[in-house]
Amino acid sequence: MSPTRPTTPRPTGQPPAKAKAKPKAKKRAKPDPAIAWARRLARYRPRLLEDTLDSLGELYGPQVWRRRLDPTSELILTILTQNSADINAEKAFVALRAAYPSRRAEEIHEPGAGWGGAGLPPGAPPDWIAVENAPLPQLVDVIRPGGLAPQKAPRIQATLRTIREERGDHSLEFLGDLAPLAARDWLTAIPGIGKKTASVLLLFCFNQPLMPVDRHVERVAKRIGLLPAKAPADLAHEQFIAMLADEPERSYETHVLLIHHGRAICQARSPKHDLCPIRGRCRMVDPKAP
């Protein structure tokens, strides 16, 4: 029998030695939902976006980007289109020009295929200082043809005031020198300016690779399956950016073709499936479409 090894007594009051704690496992970062969706679409429905754009391009013709308005005019016109028909927004903008004339150069509005109105007649942009400082009841009356004037008039004045206080004048040309998402963040920091409005300005004024998702784009994209059926509008903007990551130069084409298709064929009620060139891949026509 081996002798018992003597134990060393622990000094009184000294706590027992603690075992070394195991290092905590690093938490796996949550996947970006927009990128995850784009990868899933590419895996299970390859070339869906490309085939959609190619088919719509054959139907409606090539879409070439052209700047259509001064950035500040584009922003105010887009605010006027919020929850209103484009043709009514045009009337309100023309009324702004007449009520608050400026001596600036005449603008030529070339709205393109996605626009829902007739296009603005040539004319100088409004005097934005006069618009910002106009008596609110007067401004409401001026833009009343555009609809929702009591809500939009103070929004327009607050937007112009914010731009001037931040930049010293009402020009937004500096946004073209910023990275697309930084420019969008600058605009969406203005109360009442969301991703759609900001993306419209940046896409149409600077050809920034951003994707405005309005009700027509959202409807068409969800019917085809380009967007998940329950995708919130805010996330849909990011999902399109992710889908177009390899071809960001097609952002303008994507927006214009989808919005025009939503107006011309894929209407909210009674879509014209027999005229649609992408019905073979549309999940509304065939829930199992490839």
Structure description:
- With 290 residues, the chain is an all-alpha fold.
- It has two domains: 33-64 and 211-281, Helix-hairpin-Helix base-excision DNA repair enzymes (C-terminal) (Endonuclease Iii, domain 2), CATH 1.10.1670.10; 71-206, Hypothetical protein, domain 2 (Endonuclease III, domain 1).
- It has twelve helices and no strands.
- α3 (71-81) crosses α4 (86-99) and α8 (180-188) crosses α9.
- The longest helix is centred in the middle third of the chain and has 19 residues, at 149-167.
- The termini are far apart.
Summarize the structure.
The protein has about 290 residues and is an all-alpha fold. The chain contains 12 helices and no strands.
What does the secondary structure layout of this molecule look like, with pairings?
Layout lengths: L32 H12 L3 H13 L10 H11 L4 H14 L28 H6 L2 H7 L6 H19 L12 H9 L6 H12 L8 H10 L8 H11 L7 H14 L26
Domain count: the total is 2
At the fold tier of CATH, the topology name of the largest domain is Endonuclease III, domain 1
Give the fraction of residues assigned to helices: 40-55%
Order of helices and strands, N to C?
Answer: HHHHHHHHHHHH
What's the CATH C level of the largest domain?
A: Mainly Alpha
The CATH architecture category of the largest domain equals: Orthogonal Bundle
Mean of all residue-level pLDDT scores: 93
Count of β-strands: 0
Per CATH, the superfamily of the largest domain is: Hypothetical protein, domain 2
Q: Note the gap between the termini.
A: 80 Å
